[in-house]
Structures are given as structure tokens and as C-alpha cells.
């Protein structure tokens, strides 16, 4: 219990710090979001409308910084992240919600597949070290060293242009509208296969190498030697003793990967013209849409915190020594 209480306090403090930084972020930038919006729409906004916009975005000059901070927390707790200037003053929550499922669906599934395949192959390569299984390391590492945009372009040239197996861009066919039908789901899978495949191939090497190295280290531990001396089946020794302990450091990396899923893979979304959060963040930055940038930063930060909390819980369950050392 003390372990979980300490972790909870740490993450609550981290979340408060992230939200506070998110509050001060637009105030540290030159000018403010409302001034940028007025400059973009010169002559179309009256002084009264500008004052109303500043009040709406918590930038009222008649309020002190502390009052603005309290107002920001009130809006945040009510689920209001402000209005997006580049999206016609649409609520930031709606704008992010429209892009979030595409990123989570594609990058999330690809990351999980990459982790499962890479960890499994790494465990096998470590268990059979010195055999032909070691050939997996240079092969997967080679693809990890290839720049992602180059790998994506090669995939498009070969699988989309030459063979015509998959579409080269977008999340679904042009002219189609998102709906819950088998035809539309098939379009999404067809368009998402190529970018998902490139994500898996490019990230596989890290998982394989990390798990393989940990397996080599764990195989020299006394508890593995004792398990083998007892005559336990090799598969049971591999799964219950060696792999279970070797996978622990992988969980921390996996948690960070899950957290960054929400941030999207910007290069992938640009190469494949995919409508995800990464592309949305780039568009918001180019348009100087501070409220949307602020909302995306907050969502990404909190998601990474949640992913780390889940990793800590899983780590504590799998390795009781963690709970004892923290206590």
C-alpha cells in the first residue's frame, strides 16, 4: 500500500506540474493567441469582440495571473480546453477527438504488434544464443537504422505503386464518409496496413535486441540454473523463470511507447497523409493555433503519465522486489 501511495502522490504532483506548465505556455510566447487571431483577421473583429475572446480564453487583462490560473482550472475540470482558431473556433476537445481514434487505432495496434513480436523473437534469440537465431539481431537492427520516411517511401513505391496491393495515402477512400459499416472498416484496414507495417518493421529491432540482451543476462542467474537442475521442462523455464524476469525492463519502454501513441508518428502521418494527432499538431503549430497546441500538449502529457502508472503497477505485480525497495 505504501508503494502505491508514494507512486500516486508522485504522479499527482507531475500531473499538476504539467497542467501548470500548460497554463503558462501561451503566456510565455510572444503576443497571445487572441492577438494572433486578430492579426490574421484584420478589420473583421471589433475591440468588443477581441475583449470577449480574451475573456473566453482566460487571457482577460483585467484579471490577475492568479485569477486566470484559477479560471483555467475551472475550465479544465469542466472539460473545456478552449477553441481552435484554425478550425473555425470549434472546441479543441472536438477537434482532438476527431483525430485521436485514427492515431490510437493505427499507431496503437502497430506498437502492440511490434512489442509482442519483438519481445517473443528476442526471448527466443536469447534462449538459443550462439545459434542461427542470432541472425535475427542484424536483420531487425538494419531496418531500425533506415530512416522512417525513406522506409515509408520504399513501401509506397513497391507495395502501392508497383504491386498495387495497398493505397498510398489517406485513411479511407476519397469520397467516402466515416460510418460503422463493413465496407468502411475494410477501407480503413486496407489504407492502414501499409503505414502499420512500416511502423512494425522500423521498431522491431529495438524490442528484439533489448529482450535478447536481457535474456542473456537472466540466463546466468542462479534461479534459472536451479530451475534447470530440477529437471523442469525447457519451455517452463523459458516462460516462467527467464522471460518473466527479462521482460521487466521492456515494460518501461513499452509504457513510454504507449504514451507516445497519442502523440502520433508525425513522419508516418506526413508520408502517408494520414489524419492523425501528429499531423494535427504540425498544422496547429504552423497556424500558430495556441489553444489547439495547448490541448494536444496536455492530452499527450497526461497519456504518458497514465501509461507510466500502468507500467509501475505491472512492474510491481511481476517483481515483488520493487514494492519492497519502495516501501
Helix content: over 70%
Q: Roughly how many Å is the radius of gyration?
A: 24 Å
Give the biggest sheet: 2 strands, antiparallel
CATH topology of the domain at 98-288: MetI-like fold
Helix-strand makeup class: mainly alpha
Q: Tell me the overall shape.
A: flat
Low-pLDDT residue intervals, each spanning 5 or more residues:
none
What is the average per-residue confidence, as pLDDT, rounded to a whole number? 78
Query: Could you give the distance between the termini?
Result: 9 Å
- The strand line-up of the biggest sheet is 1-2
- CATH class descriptor name of the domain at 98-288: Mainly Alpha
Q: Order of helices and strands, N to C?
A: HHHHEEHHHHHHHHHHH
Write up what this structure looks like.
The chain is mostly helical and about 325 residues long. Helices cover about 75% and strands about 0% of the residues. The chain is built from 15 helices and two strands. It has helices at about 1-30, 35-40, 45-55, 65-75, 90-125, 135-145, 150-160, 180-220, 220-230, 235-245, 250-260, 265-270, 275-285, 290-320, 320-325, and strands at about 85, 90. The chain has a two-stranded antiparallel ribbon with strand order 1-2. A hairpin with a 5-residue loop joins strand 1 and strand 2 (about 90). Belongs to the binding-protein-dependent transport system permease family. This is ABC transporter permease. It is found in: Cell membrane; Membrane. InterPro entries: MetI-like, MetI-like_sf.
Amino acid at each position: 500500500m505504501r508503494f502505491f501511495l508514494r507512486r500516486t502522490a508522485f504522479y499527482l504532483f507531475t500531473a499538476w506540474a504539467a497542467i501548470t506548465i500548460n497554463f503558462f505556455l501561451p503566456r510565455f510566447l510572444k503576443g497571445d493567441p487572441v492577438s494572433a487571431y486578430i492579426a490574421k483577421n484584420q478589420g473583421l473583429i471589433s475591440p468588443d469582440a477581441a475583449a470577449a475572446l480574451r475573456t473566453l480564453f482566460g487571457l482577460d487583462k483585467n484579471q490577475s495571473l492568479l485569477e486566470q490560473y484559477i479560471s483555467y482550472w475551472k475550465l479544465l475540470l469542466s472539460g473545456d480546453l478552449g477553441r481552435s482558431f484554425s478550425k473555425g473556433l470549434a472546441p479543441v476537445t472536438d477537434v482532438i477527438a476527431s483525430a485521436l481514434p485514427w492515431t490510437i487505432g493505427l499507431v496503437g495496434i502497430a506498437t502492440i504488434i511490434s512489442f509482442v513480436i519483438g519481445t517473443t523473437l528476442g526471448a527466443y534469440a536469447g534462449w538459443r544464443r550462439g545459434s542461427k537465431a542470432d541472425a535475427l539481431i542484424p536483420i531487425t537492427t538494419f531496418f531500425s537504422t533506415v530512416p522512417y520516411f525513406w522506409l515509408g517511401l520504399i513501401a509506397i513505391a513497391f507495395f502501392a505503386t508497383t504491386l498495387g496491393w495497398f493505397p498510398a495515402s489517406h485513411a479511407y477512400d476519397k469520397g467516402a464518409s466515416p460510418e460503422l459499416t463493413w465496407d468502411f472498416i475494410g477501407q480503413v484496414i486496407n489504407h492502414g496496413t501499409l503505414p502499420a507495417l512500416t511502423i512494425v518493421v522500423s521498431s522491431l529491432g529495438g524490442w528484439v535486441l533489448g529482450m535478447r540482451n536481457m535474456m542473456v543476462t537472466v540466463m546466468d542467474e542462479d534461479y534459472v540454473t536451479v530451475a534447470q537442475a530440477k529437471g523442469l521442462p525447457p519451455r517452463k523455464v523459458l516462460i516462467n523463470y527467464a522471460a518473466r524476469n527479462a521482460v521487466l525492463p521492456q515494460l518501461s519502454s513499452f509504457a513510454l511507447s504507449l504514451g507516445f501513441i497519442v502523440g502520433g508518428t508525425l513522419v508516418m502521418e506526413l508520408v502517408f497523409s494520414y489524419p492523425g494527432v501528429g499531423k494535427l499538431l504540425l498544422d496547429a503549430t504552423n497556424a500558430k493555433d495556441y489553444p489547439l497546441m495547448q490541448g494536444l500538449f496536455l492530452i499527450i502529457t497526461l497519456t504518458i503519465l497514465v501509461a507510466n502508472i500502468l507500467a509501475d503497477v505491472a512492474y510491481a505485480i511481476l517483481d515483488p522486489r520493487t514494492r519492497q525497495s519502495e516501501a
